[in-house]
Amino acid sequence: MNGVIVIDKPAGPTSAEVVRQLKARLGKGTRVGHLGTLDPFATGVLPILVGEGTKLAPFLQEGTREYAGLFVLGRETDTLDSTGKVSRIAPVPTLHTAQLAAIANRFTGTIEQTPPIFSAIKRGGVPLYKLARRGIQVDPPKPRRIEIRRLELETAGDDTIRFAVLCSSGMYVRSLARDIGIALGTAAHVSELRRARSGAFSIADAHPLDEVLNALKSGEEPGLVSMSAALVALPEVVIDPLVEGRLRHGDSRALDHLSPEEASLFKLISRGKLVAIARSTSRVTAAIVRVFGTGEEEHD
Asked: How many Cβ atoms are within 10 Å of 282's Cβ, its own excluded?
């Protein structure tokens, strides 16, 4: 089994735990990974890479993310979400529609954001959240530039804001909650979070975790997205078995005159299967970036 299974993650398990559960069903010899960690309390789109699909990770990490949920005002926690300990309390101002619109506009565009201390960012090879949970004093990560393409804020109660955000990868919703709380002159944390999109994968493509686990247990098809379909954004070039064989032997000259116009990366398909990803190096030539499989797999 090679490709991507898009899970609608429930609240509770970590992203790593979802991988462990699927790996147990798929067998110990099967490579399994995930794209874009979702916090345990969060729900929604979690793409799971299976088999040769794990090699797609570098080509799928970027892309638009879409989230929705709730910010609670008046209390900031050490984790910046509802699972943490309250670290700061502040009065909650009266919320006005025009004020929220101005705040949304302020945070839209390319901005600098400091990731949470409770994050998977590593320091000395150790994720910061592990250091923080051990009670070790952790300096905040360095600010990073992220892009927020659309941000919608509306009141959902005297101390609650409903939000929807379309953003680049690397944006932390928990940090956004903290910063919006500060901008409003109060404190804030995330109480609900749902990811509706991760790159090419949307909630419409996702399957409940229990449904996928049951399908795998009974030997049914678990809603696998093919490797080629997962790379929907890449231009496609269909090649014959002779060119495929040359590529599998590392012969980039087999790509001469095959590059699509105005494309940097492109995918090569033979007999219905993804064979390789290549990068154009000139109007005529291209270089092999990654070859998939051995060529001995069964083709459609």
From this structure: 8
Q: Is 148 helix (H, G, I), strand (E, B) or coil?
A: strand
Decide if 283 contacts 255 (C-beta within 8 A): no
Give me the amino acid identity at 291.
Answer: V
Please give the positions annotated as active site.
39
Q: What residues contact residue 79 under an 8 Å CB cut-off, 6+ apart?
A: 85, 116, 118, 174, 189
Terminal Cα distance for the chain, rounded: 14
Going by their DSSP bridges, the two strands 86-89 and 75-77 should be labelled as antiparallel
Whole-angstrom Cα distance, residue 181 to residue 188? 5
pLDDT at 297 over 70: no
Q: What mean pLDDT comes out for the span 96-105?
A: 96
Token couple for 50: 């299976």
Please give the helix or strand (H or E) that residue 7 lies within, else none.
Answer: strand 3-9
Q: What is the mean pLDDT of residues 124-133?
A: 81
Task: Give the span between the Cα atoms of 86 and 84, in whole angstroms.
Answer: 6
Task: Give the whole-angstrom CA distance, residue 115 versus residue 122.
Answer: 12
Pairing of the two strands 273-280 and 265-270: antiparallel
Q: Are 38 and 172 in contact (CB under 8 A)?
A: no
- 3-state secondary structure (DSSP) of residue 139: coil
**Distance (Å, whole) CA 60 – CA 47:** 10
Alpha-carbon distance 66 to 11, whole Å?
A: 17
